[in-house]
Amino acid sequence: MSGSREHENENKENKGNVHIADDVVASVAALAAAEIEGVGALVAGPGVDISELLGKKNMTKGVKLVMDDDNVTIDIFLLVKYGAAIQAVARKVQDAVGSAVESMTGLSVTAVNIRVNGVAFEKEPKKQEKK
């Protein structure tokens, strides 16, 4: 996802065009997915250049878009928290991401594909040693 391509939605009242960058759509999808209970983290999908991940916080990590006019297919790469029902979490993410992207951008979401890349375990709190 380069973020350089923009998507145009023609204003019905003919006041001009609205441009929505790929990174905006991906950020909406990432934030919607991260809010779902049971999602441990979004992770970089295959084919991501490591240089993209270095240097700055990447809000779109774990999201891949395929755009076709005003239609978008979204791939979400995530870790599910240990103990969560994977299928239930995946369905909730699909619903949340599709709804958020459609309502905020006006684009039609054709599919939200979930790729569970692993299980996230909660870190145990460090035990304080008694002296």
Describe the structure.
There is one protein chain. By secondary structure, the chain is of the alpha+beta class. It has a single domain (22-120), classed as Cation efflux protein, cytoplasmic domain (Alpha-Beta Plaits). It is 28% helix and 34% strand. It has helices at residues 22-34, 50-53, 86-105, and strands spanning 6-10, 17-21, 39-42, 63-68, 71-81, 108-120. Strands 3, 4, 5 and 6 form a 4-stranded mixed beta sheet that branches. A two-stranded antiparallel sheet has the order 1-2. A hairpin with a 2-residue loop joins β4 (63-68) and β5 (71-81). α1 (22-34) packs antiparallel against α3. The protein is elongated and about 70 Å long.
- Biggest beta-sheet profile: 4 strands, mixed
Uncertain stretches: 49-53
CATH first level:
Alpha Beta
Query: CA-to-CA gap between the ends?
Result: 53 Å
CATH architecture classification name: 2-Layer Sandwich
General shape: elongated
Q: Would you tell me the overall average pLDDT? A: 83
CATH topology grouping: Alpha-Beta Plaits
Count of alpha and pi helical runs:
3
State the domain count.
1
- What portion of residues is helical? 25-40%
> Beta-strand level of the residues, as a percent range?
25-35%
The ordered H/E elements are EEHEHEEHE
How many extended strands? 6
Question: What Rg do the Cα atoms give?
Answer: 17 Å
